[in-house]
Amino acid sequence: MTQHPHDTIVIGGGIAGLVAAYRLREAGRSVLVLEANERVGGNIHTTGDGDYRLEGGPHTFLASADNVWRLLRDLGKEDAVVAAAPAAKHRYIYRDGKLHAIPTSPWAFIKTKLLTWRGKLSLLAEPIKPGGARKNDTATDFFLRRFGREGATYLAGTFVSGIYAGDPSRLGARAAFPKFWNFEKNAGSMIRGAIRYMRAKKKERAAAGYKPRRGLFSFDGGLGRLPEFVAEQLGDDAIRTNAAVRGLRREGETWAVEGEGGESWRARSVVLAAPPPKAASILASLDEHAARILERIPMAPVAVVHLMGKAEGAIPPGFGALIPRDHGFRILGVIFADQLFADRAPAGHFLHTIFVGGMFDPTAVKRTDKELTQIVTDEHARLLGRYTIERVAIRRFPHAIPQLQVDHPEQIEALRLLVADHPGLTLAGNYLAGVSVDLAVGSGYEAASEIDSFLRSG
Ligand SMILES: Cc1cc2nc3c(=O)[nH]c(=O)nc-3n(C[C@H](O)[C@H](O)[C@H](O)COP(=O)(O)OP(=O)(O)OC[C@H]3O[C@@H](n4cnc5c(N)ncnc54)[C@H](O)[C@@H]3O)c2cc1C
To answer: How far is the CA of 372 from the centre of ligand 1 (A)?
Structure first.
Protein backbone atom coordinates (compact mmCIF):
# COMPACT_ATOMS: atom_id res chain seq x y z
CA MET A 1 0.00 0.00 0.00
CA THR A 2 1.25 3.52 -0.87
CA GLN A 3 2.36 5.57 2.11
CA HIS A 4 0.99 9.10 1.98
CA PRO A 5 2.69 11.84 3.92
CA HIS A 6 -0.71 13.52 4.32
CA ASP A 7 -4.32 12.45 4.30
CA THR A 8 -5.31 15.77 2.76
CA ILE A 9 -3.72 18.75 1.11
CA VAL A 10 -5.78 21.94 1.19
CA ILE A 11 -4.91 24.39 -1.58
CA GLY A 12 -5.64 27.95 -0.42
CA GLY A 13 -5.56 29.20 3.16
CA GLY A 14 -8.53 31.58 3.00
CA ILE A 15 -11.21 31.02 5.60
CA ALA A 16 -12.85 28.23 3.56
CA GLY A 17 -9.63 26.22 3.21
CA LEU A 18 -8.63 26.80 6.83
CA VAL A 19 -11.98 25.57 8.13
CA ALA A 20 -11.80 22.46 5.95
CA ALA A 21 -8.27 21.75 7.25
CA TYR A 22 -9.24 22.39 10.86
CA ARG A 23 -12.24 20.04 10.71
CA LEU A 24 -10.21 17.27 9.10
CA ARG A 25 -7.50 17.72 11.69
CA GLU A 26 -10.14 17.49 14.43
CA ALA A 27 -11.29 14.24 12.82
CA GLY A 28 -7.76 12.88 13.29
CA ARG A 29 -6.55 13.41 9.71
CA SER A 30 -3.10 14.66 8.81
CA VAL A 31 -3.48 17.86 6.82
CA LEU A 32 -1.25 20.34 5.01
CA VAL A 33 -2.52 23.77 3.89
CA LEU A 34 -0.64 25.30 0.96
CA GLU A 35 -1.12 29.06 0.78
CA ALA A 36 0.29 31.22 -2.04
CA ASN A 37 0.51 34.35 0.08
CA GLU A 38 2.90 35.09 2.97
CA ARG A 39 -0.05 34.82 5.37
CA VAL A 40 -3.30 32.89 5.63
CA GLY A 41 -6.78 34.46 5.77
CA GLY A 42 -7.23 35.41 2.11
CA ASN A 43 -9.69 38.29 1.85
CA ILE A 44 -9.96 38.56 5.62
CA HIS A 45 -7.03 40.61 6.82
CA THR A 46 -6.65 43.22 9.54
CA THR A 47 -3.55 45.39 9.64
CA GLY A 48 -2.26 48.16 11.85
CA ASP A 49 -1.33 51.59 10.50
CA GLY A 50 -0.02 53.66 13.40
CA ASP A 51 -2.85 53.71 15.93
CA TYR A 52 -5.41 52.77 13.29
CA ARG A 53 -6.66 49.26 12.69
CA LEU A 54 -7.64 48.61 9.08
CA GLU A 55 -9.88 45.90 7.68
CA GLY A 56 -8.67 45.06 4.18
CA GLY A 57 -11.79 43.04 3.32
CA PRO A 58 -14.86 42.21 5.42
CA HIS A 59 -15.38 44.21 8.63
CA THR A 60 -18.04 42.22 10.44
CA PHE A 61 -20.19 39.12 10.50
CA LEU A 62 -23.88 38.95 11.25
CA ALA A 63 -25.90 37.59 14.14
CA SER A 64 -27.39 35.21 11.57
CA ALA A 65 -23.97 33.83 10.47
CA ASP A 66 -24.68 30.34 11.84
CA ASN A 67 -21.57 28.76 10.30
CA VAL A 68 -19.29 31.37 11.85
CA TRP A 69 -20.93 30.91 15.27
CA ARG A 70 -20.59 27.17 14.90
CA LEU A 71 -16.88 27.61 14.10
CA LEU A 72 -16.39 29.86 17.13
CA ARG A 73 -18.08 27.30 19.33
CA ASP A 74 -15.90 24.51 17.91
CA LEU A 75 -12.80 26.63 18.47
CA GLY A 76 -13.90 27.67 21.97
CA LYS A 77 -13.65 31.31 20.91
CA GLU A 78 -17.19 32.62 21.39
CA ASP A 79 -15.93 34.84 24.21
CA ALA A 80 -13.53 36.62 21.86
CA VAL A 81 -16.45 38.17 19.96
CA VAL A 82 -17.21 41.87 20.28
CA ALA A 83 -20.47 43.49 19.19
CA ALA A 84 -20.45 46.59 17.01
CA ALA A 85 -21.68 49.84 18.59
CA PRO A 86 -25.52 50.03 18.63
CA ALA A 87 -25.35 52.99 16.20
CA ALA A 88 -24.11 50.55 13.53
CA LYS A 89 -27.74 49.72 12.84
CA HIS A 90 -28.04 53.05 11.01
CA ARG A 91 -27.11 53.04 7.34
CA TYR A 92 -27.36 55.79 4.78
CA ILE A 93 -28.13 56.05 1.10
CA TYR A 94 -27.31 58.98 -1.15
CA ARG A 95 -30.10 60.63 -3.12
CA ASP A 96 -30.56 64.13 -4.54
CA GLY A 97 -27.33 65.48 -3.11
CA LYS A 98 -27.90 64.19 0.45
CA LEU A 99 -27.50 61.16 2.66
CA HIS A 100 -30.76 59.65 3.91
CA ALA A 101 -30.97 57.18 6.80
CA ILE A 102 -32.54 53.86 5.79
CA PRO A 103 -35.75 53.91 7.82
CA THR A 104 -35.81 51.47 10.73
CA SER A 105 -39.29 52.30 12.10
CA PRO A 106 -42.72 52.97 10.56
CA TRP A 107 -42.51 56.65 11.54
CA ALA A 108 -39.07 57.00 9.94
CA PHE A 109 -40.47 55.32 6.82
CA ILE A 110 -43.29 57.85 6.62
CA LYS A 111 -40.90 60.76 7.09
CA THR A 112 -37.98 59.69 4.91
CA LYS A 113 -37.15 61.55 1.71
CA LEU A 114 -35.16 58.57 0.46
CA LEU A 115 -38.30 57.49 -1.44
CA THR A 116 -41.16 59.50 -2.89
CA TRP A 117 -44.73 58.62 -1.86
CA ARG A 118 -45.09 56.68 -5.04
CA GLY A 119 -41.94 54.69 -4.20
CA LYS A 120 -43.15 54.09 -0.65
CA LEU A 121 -46.55 52.86 -1.82
CA SER A 122 -44.94 50.47 -4.27
CA LEU A 123 -42.81 49.06 -1.45
CA LEU A 124 -45.79 48.77 0.91
CA ALA A 125 -47.72 46.92 -1.78
CA GLU A 126 -45.01 44.24 -2.05
CA PRO A 127 -46.93 41.60 -0.06
CA ILE A 128 -49.92 41.86 -2.39
CA LYS A 129 -48.04 42.05 -5.68
CA PRO A 130 -48.39 38.84 -7.68
CA GLY A 131 -45.55 36.34 -7.22
CA GLY A 132 -43.71 35.27 -10.31
CA ALA A 133 -40.31 33.85 -9.39
CA ARG A 134 -38.64 32.64 -12.58
CA LYS A 135 -35.46 30.60 -12.81
CA ASN A 136 -33.92 33.13 -15.14
CA ASP A 137 -34.69 36.25 -13.11
CA THR A 138 -31.82 38.65 -12.89
CA ALA A 139 -31.51 40.63 -9.67
CA THR A 140 -32.89 43.63 -11.62
CA ASP A 141 -35.99 41.68 -12.76
CA PHE A 142 -36.60 40.44 -9.26
CA PHE A 143 -36.19 43.70 -7.33
CA LEU A 144 -38.13 45.71 -9.92
CA ARG A 145 -41.02 43.25 -9.71
CA ARG A 146 -41.07 43.23 -5.91
CA PHE A 147 -40.19 46.82 -5.01
CA GLY A 148 -40.82 49.01 -8.07
CA ARG A 149 -38.26 51.30 -9.69
CA GLU A 150 -37.34 53.45 -6.68
CA GLY A 151 -37.05 50.57 -4.22
CA ALA A 152 -34.99 48.64 -6.78
CA THR A 153 -32.65 51.61 -7.35
CA TYR A 154 -32.24 53.10 -3.90
CA LEU A 155 -32.63 50.09 -1.61
CA ALA A 156 -31.95 46.92 -3.56
CA GLY A 157 -29.48 48.44 -6.05
CA THR A 158 -27.22 49.83 -3.36
CA PHE A 159 -27.49 46.57 -1.42
CA VAL A 160 -26.33 44.66 -4.54
CA SER A 161 -23.45 47.05 -4.86
CA GLY A 162 -22.58 46.72 -1.15
CA ILE A 163 -22.43 42.92 -1.28
CA TYR A 164 -21.29 42.08 -4.81
CA ALA A 165 -19.85 45.34 -6.17
CA GLY A 166 -22.02 43.98 -8.94
CA ASP A 167 -24.27 44.88 -11.81
CA PRO A 168 -27.78 43.69 -10.82
CA SER A 169 -28.67 43.03 -14.46
CA ARG A 170 -25.85 40.45 -14.63
CA LEU A 171 -26.54 38.71 -11.31
CA GLY A 172 -29.05 35.87 -11.11
CA ALA A 173 -31.68 36.44 -8.39
CA ARG A 174 -31.89 32.70 -7.65
CA ALA A 175 -28.09 32.40 -7.27
CA ALA A 176 -27.13 35.73 -5.76
CA PHE A 177 -30.15 36.22 -3.46
CA PRO A 178 -31.44 32.69 -2.99
CA LYS A 179 -33.27 33.42 0.26
CA PHE A 180 -35.17 36.37 -1.20
CA TRP A 181 -35.94 34.52 -4.42
CA ASN A 182 -37.23 31.53 -2.47
CA PHE A 183 -39.33 33.75 -0.19
CA GLU A 184 -41.20 34.92 -3.28
CA LYS A 185 -41.31 31.47 -4.80
CA ASN A 186 -42.69 29.83 -1.65
CA ALA A 187 -44.77 32.58 -0.07
CA GLY A 188 -45.69 34.65 -3.15
CA SER A 189 -44.03 37.68 -1.55
CA MET A 190 -40.57 38.49 -0.32
CA ILE A 191 -41.81 40.25 2.82
CA ARG A 192 -44.30 37.52 3.76
CA GLY A 193 -41.68 34.86 3.07
CA ALA A 194 -39.12 36.71 5.18
CA ILE A 195 -41.48 36.95 8.15
CA ARG A 196 -42.25 33.22 7.99
CA TYR A 197 -38.56 32.40 7.64
CA MET A 198 -37.51 34.57 10.59
CA ARG A 199 -40.10 32.94 12.86
CA ALA A 200 -39.00 29.43 11.88
CA LYS A 201 -35.31 30.34 12.16
CA LYS A 202 -35.76 31.80 15.63
CA LYS A 203 -37.23 28.50 16.83
CA GLU A 204 -34.56 26.46 15.05
CA ARG A 205 -31.70 28.53 16.53
CA ALA A 206 -33.17 28.28 20.02
CA ALA A 207 -33.46 24.49 19.61
CA ALA A 208 -29.84 24.29 18.38
CA GLY A 209 -28.68 26.22 21.45
CA TYR A 210 -27.67 29.47 19.71
CA LYS A 211 -28.00 32.54 21.92
CA PRO A 212 -30.45 35.11 20.50
CA ARG A 213 -28.30 37.87 19.03
CA ARG A 214 -28.76 41.00 16.99
CA GLY A 215 -26.39 43.19 15.07
CA LEU A 216 -22.88 42.93 13.75
CA PHE A 217 -19.79 41.35 15.26
CA SER A 218 -16.02 41.17 15.08
CA PHE A 219 -13.15 40.57 17.54
CA ASP A 220 -10.78 42.59 19.63
CA GLY A 221 -8.05 43.06 17.08
CA GLY A 222 -10.37 42.89 14.08
CA LEU A 223 -11.94 40.25 11.87
CA GLY A 224 -8.45 39.03 10.93
CA ARG A 225 -8.51 37.21 14.28
CA LEU A 226 -10.93 34.67 12.78
CA PRO A 227 -8.47 32.99 10.37
CA GLU A 228 -5.76 33.44 13.00
CA PHE A 229 -7.79 31.47 15.56
CA VAL A 230 -8.20 28.62 13.07
CA ALA A 231 -4.53 28.73 12.05
CA GLU A 232 -3.43 28.70 15.71
CA GLN A 233 -5.37 25.51 16.32
CA LEU A 234 -4.01 23.94 13.16
CA GLY A 235 -0.43 24.70 14.20
CA ASP A 236 2.53 25.84 12.09
CA ASP A 237 3.39 22.35 10.92
CA ALA A 238 0.05 22.11 9.10
CA ILE A 239 0.47 25.35 7.10
CA ARG A 240 2.94 26.29 4.37
CA THR A 241 2.79 29.92 3.29
CA ASN A 242 4.50 31.28 0.15
CA ALA A 243 3.52 27.97 -1.42
CA ALA A 244 1.57 28.75 -4.58
CA VAL A 245 0.17 25.68 -6.29
CA ARG A 246 0.45 25.36 -10.07
CA GLY A 247 -1.27 22.08 -10.87
CA LEU A 248 -2.64 18.75 -9.73
CA ARG A 249 -1.98 15.23 -10.94
CA ARG A 250 -3.28 11.80 -10.07
CA GLU A 251 -0.65 9.06 -9.67
CA GLY A 252 -2.51 5.84 -8.95
CA GLU A 253 -4.14 6.33 -5.55
CA THR A 254 -2.14 9.44 -4.83
CA TRP A 255 -2.65 13.12 -5.54
CA ALA A 256 0.53 14.93 -6.57
CA VAL A 257 0.29 18.67 -6.00
CA GLU A 258 2.83 20.76 -7.89
CA GLY A 259 4.09 24.07 -6.56
CA GLU A 260 4.97 27.10 -8.66
CA GLY A 261 8.51 26.84 -7.35
CA GLY A 262 8.99 23.26 -8.62
CA GLU A 263 8.30 21.51 -5.29
CA SER A 264 5.62 18.84 -5.04
CA TRP A 265 3.51 17.34 -2.27
CA ARG A 266 1.53 14.11 -2.04
CA ALA A 267 -1.69 13.16 -0.29
CA ARG A 268 -4.67 10.82 -0.49
CA SER A 269 -7.08 13.69 -1.01
CA VAL A 270 -7.22 17.36 -1.96
CA VAL A 271 -9.49 20.27 -1.05
CA LEU A 272 -9.16 22.94 -3.74
CA ALA A 273 -10.00 26.18 -1.89
CA ALA A 274 -8.42 28.75 -4.20
CA PRO A 275 -10.66 31.42 -5.82
CA PRO A 276 -12.21 30.58 -9.23
CA PRO A 277 -9.58 32.05 -11.59
CA LYS A 278 -6.74 30.31 -9.70
CA ALA A 279 -8.71 27.10 -9.18
CA ALA A 280 -9.30 27.09 -12.97
CA SER A 281 -5.61 27.25 -13.80
CA ILE A 282 -4.75 24.61 -11.15
CA LEU A 283 -7.36 22.24 -12.67
CA ALA A 284 -6.60 23.06 -16.31
CA SER A 285 -4.44 20.04 -17.11
CA LEU A 286 -6.53 17.63 -14.99
CA ASP A 287 -10.01 18.58 -16.18
CA GLU A 288 -10.41 21.23 -18.85
CA HIS A 289 -14.23 21.25 -18.65
CA ALA A 290 -14.19 21.96 -14.92
CA ALA A 291 -11.53 24.60 -15.47
CA ARG A 292 -13.66 26.26 -18.12
CA ILE A 293 -16.67 26.53 -15.78
CA LEU A 294 -14.49 28.14 -13.10
CA GLU A 295 -12.89 30.50 -15.60
CA ARG A 296 -16.30 31.79 -16.69
CA ILE A 297 -17.29 33.02 -13.21
CA PRO A 298 -16.83 36.81 -13.43
CA MET A 299 -14.99 38.37 -10.49
CA ALA A 300 -15.66 42.01 -9.55
CA PRO A 301 -12.43 43.97 -9.10
CA VAL A 302 -12.44 46.24 -6.05
CA ALA A 303 -10.03 48.72 -4.48
CA VAL A 304 -10.36 49.40 -0.77
CA VAL A 305 -9.15 52.84 0.26
CA HIS A 306 -8.79 53.81 3.93
CA LEU A 307 -8.88 57.51 4.78
CA MET A 308 -7.54 58.45 8.19
CA GLY A 309 -7.42 61.84 9.84
CA LYS A 310 -8.82 64.42 12.22
CA ALA A 311 -12.50 64.15 13.05
CA GLU A 312 -14.07 67.49 12.17
CA GLY A 313 -17.70 68.29 11.49
CA ALA A 314 -20.47 65.79 11.97
CA ILE A 315 -20.36 62.35 10.40
CA PRO A 316 -23.80 60.82 10.88
CA PRO A 317 -23.81 57.96 13.41
CA GLY A 318 -23.87 54.56 11.74
CA PHE A 319 -22.26 51.77 9.77
CA GLY A 320 -21.76 53.79 6.62
CA ALA A 321 -23.27 54.97 3.37
CA LEU A 322 -23.97 53.50 -0.07
CA ILE A 323 -24.26 55.41 -3.30
CA PRO A 324 -26.52 54.28 -6.15
CA ARG A 325 -24.90 54.10 -9.58
CA ASP A 326 -25.59 56.95 -12.03
CA HIS A 327 -25.33 59.57 -9.28
CA GLY A 328 -22.01 60.95 -10.45
CA PHE A 329 -19.83 59.06 -7.98
CA ARG A 330 -17.23 56.40 -8.65
CA ILE A 331 -17.05 55.31 -5.01
CA LEU A 332 -19.51 52.55 -4.19
CA GLY A 333 -19.77 53.20 -0.49
CA VAL A 334 -18.08 54.21 2.73
CA ILE A 335 -17.81 52.34 6.02
CA PHE A 336 -17.51 54.60 9.06
CA ALA A 337 -15.05 52.09 10.53
CA ASP A 338 -14.07 54.15 13.59
CA GLN A 339 -17.71 54.18 14.72
CA LEU A 340 -18.12 50.42 14.67
CA PHE A 341 -15.56 49.29 17.24
CA ALA A 342 -13.63 51.25 19.84
CA ASP A 343 -10.14 50.15 18.79
CA ARG A 344 -10.18 51.30 15.15
CA ALA A 345 -8.89 54.90 15.33
CA PRO A 346 -7.18 57.11 17.92
CA ALA A 347 -9.43 59.48 19.90
CA GLY A 348 -10.49 62.55 17.93
CA HIS A 349 -9.70 60.84 14.62
CA PHE A 350 -11.74 59.09 11.97
CA LEU A 351 -11.20 56.01 9.81
CA HIS A 352 -13.35 55.66 6.73
CA THR A 353 -13.04 52.65 4.45
CA ILE A 354 -14.17 53.30 0.91
CA PHE A 355 -14.85 50.85 -1.90
CA VAL A 356 -14.19 51.74 -5.55
CA GLY A 357 -14.50 49.73 -8.75
CA GLY A 358 -16.84 46.78 -9.15
CA MET A 359 -18.53 45.55 -12.32
CA PHE A 360 -19.59 49.05 -13.43
CA ASP A 361 -16.08 50.45 -13.13
CA PRO A 362 -13.67 47.55 -13.66
CA THR A 363 -10.63 49.67 -14.51
CA ALA A 364 -10.66 51.70 -11.28
CA VAL A 365 -8.42 49.15 -9.49
CA LYS A 366 -5.76 49.72 -12.14
CA ARG A 367 -5.41 53.40 -11.23
CA THR A 368 -2.23 54.47 -9.49
CA ASP A 369 -2.31 55.13 -5.74
CA LYS A 370 -2.16 58.85 -6.48
CA GLU A 371 -5.14 58.71 -8.85
CA LEU A 372 -7.23 56.54 -6.51
CA THR A 373 -6.43 58.82 -3.56
CA GLN A 374 -7.54 61.84 -5.61
CA ILE A 375 -10.81 60.24 -6.72
CA VAL A 376 -11.64 59.00 -3.24
CA THR A 377 -10.72 62.14 -1.29
CA ASP A 378 -12.66 64.38 -3.72
CA GLU A 379 -15.77 62.23 -3.61
CA HIS A 380 -15.50 61.72 0.16
CA ALA A 381 -15.49 65.51 0.55
CA ARG A 382 -18.53 65.83 -1.75
CA LEU A 383 -20.39 63.23 0.28
CA LEU A 384 -19.43 64.15 3.84
CA GLY A 385 -17.74 67.53 3.76
CA ARG A 386 -14.05 68.34 3.83
CA TYR A 387 -11.91 66.58 6.46
CA THR A 388 -8.21 66.77 7.24
CA ILE A 389 -6.87 63.53 5.83
CA GLU A 390 -3.55 62.56 7.39
CA ARG A 391 -2.99 59.11 5.97
CA VAL A 392 -4.29 56.92 3.14
CA ALA A 393 -3.89 53.16 2.73
CA ILE A 394 -4.99 51.16 -0.33
CA ARG A 395 -5.59 47.45 -0.92
CA ARG A 396 -6.46 46.21 -4.39
CA PHE A 397 -8.45 43.07 -5.19
CA PRO A 398 -8.23 42.42 -8.95
CA HIS A 399 -10.60 39.45 -8.41
CA ALA A 400 -12.59 40.40 -5.32
CA ILE A 401 -16.08 39.00 -5.46
CA PRO A 402 -17.58 36.21 -7.60
CA GLN A 403 -20.60 37.28 -9.60
CA LEU A 404 -23.26 34.60 -9.35
CA GLN A 405 -25.01 34.75 -12.71
CA VAL A 406 -28.42 33.46 -13.78
CA ASP A 407 -27.14 29.95 -14.59
CA HIS A 408 -24.73 29.77 -11.64
CA PRO A 409 -26.58 26.96 -9.77
CA GLU A 410 -26.53 24.74 -12.89
CA GLN A 411 -22.89 25.58 -13.60
CA ILE A 412 -21.90 24.66 -10.04
CA GLU A 413 -23.88 21.43 -10.25
CA ALA A 414 -22.07 20.57 -13.48
CA LEU A 415 -18.75 21.49 -11.89
CA ARG A 416 -19.40 19.28 -8.87
CA LEU A 417 -20.31 16.35 -11.15
CA LEU A 418 -17.06 16.78 -13.07
CA VAL A 419 -15.03 16.98 -9.87
CA ALA A 420 -16.78 13.89 -8.49
CA ASP A 421 -15.09 11.93 -11.28
CA HIS A 422 -11.78 12.54 -9.51
CA PRO A 423 -11.94 10.49 -6.28
CA GLY A 424 -10.60 12.35 -3.27
CA LEU A 425 -10.85 15.81 -4.81
CA THR A 426 -13.32 18.40 -3.59
CA LEU A 427 -13.89 22.16 -3.76
CA ALA A 428 -14.38 24.86 -1.15
CA GLY A 429 -14.81 28.61 -1.41
CA ASN A 430 -17.21 31.50 -1.54
CA TYR A 431 -18.23 31.00 -5.17
CA LEU A 432 -20.02 27.70 -4.48
CA ALA A 433 -23.03 28.66 -2.36
CA GLY A 434 -22.68 32.37 -1.67
CA VAL A 435 -20.12 35.11 -1.26
CA SER A 436 -20.31 35.84 2.48
CA VAL A 437 -17.73 34.86 5.08
CA ASP A 438 -20.48 32.74 6.63
CA LEU A 439 -21.08 30.70 3.48
CA ALA A 440 -17.33 30.41 2.84
CA VAL A 441 -17.00 28.89 6.33
CA GLY A 442 -19.96 26.61 5.53
CA SER A 443 -18.26 25.43 2.35
CA GLY A 444 -15.17 24.54 4.43
CA TYR A 445 -17.26 22.37 6.76
CA GLU A 446 -18.94 20.70 3.81
CA ALA A 447 -15.64 19.97 2.02
CA ALA A 448 -14.19 18.46 5.22
CA SER A 449 -17.17 16.18 5.66
CA GLU A 450 -16.95 14.98 2.02
CA ILE A 451 -13.23 14.26 2.32
CA ASP A 452 -13.65 12.55 5.67
CA SER A 453 -16.25 10.19 4.14
CA PHE A 454 -13.91 9.52 1.22
CA LEU A 455 -10.99 8.73 3.54
CA ARG A 456 -13.19 6.48 5.65
CA SER A 457 -14.29 4.53 2.59
CA GLY A 458 -10.71 3.99 1.34
C1 LIG B 1 -13.32 43.92 -0.26
C2 LIG B 1 -14.15 42.79 0.25
C3 LIG B 1 -15.12 43.04 1.22
C4 LIG B 1 -15.90 41.99 1.71
N5 LIG B 1 -16.84 42.26 2.67
C6 LIG B 1 -17.57 41.24 3.19
C7 LIG B 1 -18.48 41.47 4.27
O8 LIG B 1 -18.63 42.60 4.74
N9 LIG B 1 -19.18 40.41 4.77
C10 LIG B 1 -19.00 39.15 4.28
O11 LIG B 1 -19.65 38.21 4.77
N12 LIG B 1 -18.15 38.90 3.26
C13 LIG B 1 -17.42 39.91 2.73
N14 LIG B 1 -16.54 39.66 1.72
C15 LIG B 1 -16.44 38.29 1.20
C16 LIG B 1 -15.55 37.40 2.07
O17 LIG B 1 -14.36 38.07 2.39
C18 LIG B 1 -15.22 36.13 1.31
O19 LIG B 1 -16.39 35.46 0.95
C20 LIG B 1 -14.38 35.12 2.07
O21 LIG B 1 -13.38 35.73 2.84
C22 LIG B 1 -13.83 34.17 1.02
O23 LIG B 1 -13.08 33.16 1.60
P24 LIG B 1 -12.44 32.03 0.68
O25 LIG B 1 -11.60 31.18 1.56
O26 LIG B 1 -13.50 31.39 -0.13
O27 LIG B 1 -11.52 32.80 -0.40
P28 LIG B 1 -10.24 33.73 -0.23
O29 LIG B 1 -10.34 34.58 0.96
O30 LIG B 1 -10.07 34.38 -1.57
O31 LIG B 1 -9.05 32.69 0.00
C32 LIG B 1 -8.46 31.95 -1.04
C33 LIG B 1 -7.01 31.73 -0.69
O34 LIG B 1 -6.40 30.95 -1.72
C35 LIG B 1 -5.08 31.42 -1.89
N36 LIG B 1 -4.60 31.03 -3.21
C37 LIG B 1 -4.90 31.56 -4.42
N38 LIG B 1 -4.23 30.93 -5.39
C39 LIG B 1 -3.49 29.97 -4.79
C40 LIG B 1 -2.58 28.98 -5.29
N41 LIG B 1 -2.31 28.89 -6.59
N42 LIG B 1 -1.97 28.17 -4.41
C43 LIG B 1 -2.23 28.27 -3.07
N44 LIG B 1 -3.09 29.19 -2.56
C45 LIG B 1 -3.71 30.02 -3.41
C46 LIG B 1 -5.23 32.93 -1.74
O47 LIG B 1 -3.99 33.56 -1.49
C48 LIG B 1 -6.20 33.02 -0.58
O49 LIG B 1 -5.54 33.07 0.65
C50 LIG B 1 -15.73 40.68 1.21
C51 LIG B 1 -14.76 40.42 0.24
C52 LIG B 1 -13.97 41.46 -0.24
C53 LIG B 1 -12.92 41.18 -1.27
So the answer is: 22
